[in-house]
């Protein structure tokens, strides 16, 4: 049995949202993709209107583009409000990665979570996500690891116990 890898970190609202953006980009188009698709739809709709093309398609495209952008902005606001309601991010969080699960200490609670609590893991460029279900996950910044050896050991423990969540497009 390998010794546990222990880290301590804090997560600001901006860091949490940066993690959410990376998670959304991994799962689907992400924020940039949503704005590009919405903008292209709006531009095409306005072009069709300017050209005088009859029919409802220009209005459908215009409303669709605005809807995509509006839903992305609303999702951002909802997740920021969600972060502000979480107690665990109000103080430093201590996590110990071990073969038997995670030991977590935060302002909210001290608990041991078996690996069976989580369904998948996702490594993005700056964060590790331990996914419980579609809406619940733990965000762990990779910068919290003191050394590359600790990070590699934690990655090996996570990979041995959880399947990666494959990215998808739409």
Structural overview:
- The protein is an alpha+beta fold.
- The protein folds into two domains: 5-11 and 88-163, Pleckstrin-homology domain (PH domain)/Phosphotyrosine-binding domain (PTB) (PH-domain like); 16-85.
- It is 47% helix and 21% strand.
- The protein is built from four helices and eight strands; from the N terminus they run E-H-H-H-E-E-E-E-E-E-H-E.
- It has helices at residues 13-27, 30-51, 57-85, 148-161; strands at residues 5-9, 93-98, 101-105, 110-113, 120-123, 127-131, 137-141, 163-164.
- The protein has a four-stranded antiparallel β-sheet, with helices on one face. Strands 7-6-5-8 form a four-stranded mixed β-sheet, sandwiched between helices.
- The two termini are 40 Å apart.
Label this structure with key terms.
170 residues; four-stranded antiparallel β-sheet; elongated; 8 strands; 47% helix; single chain; 4 helices; alpha+beta
- Helix-strand makeup class: alpha+beta
End-to-end C-alpha gap: 40 Å
Low-confidence stretches: none
The CATH topology of the largest domain corresponds to PH-domain like
Annotate the secondary structure layout.
Layout: E1 5-9, H1 13-27, H2 30-51, H3 57-85, E2 93-98, E3 101-105, E4 110-113, E5 120-123, E6 127-131, E7 137-141, H4 148-161, E8 163-164
Parallel strand pairs: 5-8
Antiparallel strand pairs: 1-2, 2-3, 3-4, 5-6, 6-7
What's this model, at a glance?
With 170 residues, this protein is of the alpha+beta class. The protein is 47% helix and 21% strand. It has helices at residues 13-27, 30-51, 57-85, 148-161; strands at 5-9, 93-98, 101-105, 110-113, 120-123, 127-131, 137-141, 163-164.
